[in-house]
Amino acid sequence: MLLLVPFVALLWVPLYTRTTPKLFGFPFFYWYQFAWVVVTALIVWVVYVATRPPEVAE
Predict the structure, then answer these.
(1) Taking Cα atoms as reference points, which of 13, 41, 40 lies closest to residue 28?
(2) What is the pLDDT of residues 12-44, one digit of tens each?
(3) Residues 47-54: contacts with CB under 8 Å, at least 24 apart
(4) What gap in Å lies between CA 40 and CA 46, rounded to an integer?
């Protein structure tokens, strides 16, 4: 379920089809997309850590 959040956020185009607010001179569209790259990487890491099998001590 957690992996659906970035998918929905990036497909919901009316949410980010605007130019303001700007961040460091970049229009909202660009930094919104880039922010989701970082957020998606963090979400994938969280899901990986939560679902990996336990380590077996030898």
Answers:
(1) 13
(2) 777 777 778 888 888 888 888 888 899 999 999
(3) 47/2, 47/3
(4) 10
